[in-house]
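Hi V.,

You were right to ask for the full record rather than a summary. Here it is.
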Amino acid sequence: MMIQIWLDACREDLPVIQEVLKDTADIIGCSWPGMDSAGDVIREGIEGSRITFVSAGPLSNAASVLKRYPSLAENISKIIFQGGCLMYGNVHGYAEKNLYDDPQAAEYILTHDLPVMICPLEVSSAYPPFTALKMILEGDMPADVKVCGAHAEIRGQVSAGKLVTDLWSDAKFPVRKTEILVRE
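Predicted structure:
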């Protein structure tokens, strides 16, 4: 039996991602940033199911649906987020676009009591588009999984949209539950 996923990504990317994942996952529904009534569509799609929420875009819809319908957290076994960066970004020196576009949503998800796996830019950009997501879902990702504390910088003038972790820090965040893929 294939894993059931809800897919959230930029609308123009959905056909490409669906093609990449077609033999890997049972995609029970799709949404995209800016979609009218995305929260209701997601709620209706995942109620009564146990799914993995896969986001290849900003975490806006995931945060929105969990704020409106907190009990749906029970239906989500994990959130896999293709976004953020550990070193250098693609928006400015410190931020990756998916996290930068809605750092408040990312912070909400990272501090919510749900298992989260982040596939940062350093890992995802080493493969053809969306192939890293396929590899994660198949359990075939040649990267180390590190558990750490993670936050999204939402206030900094220079660092807004930056993924902040305690991976290489002596000081650790009190909650350390986020899985991050690291290529070493």
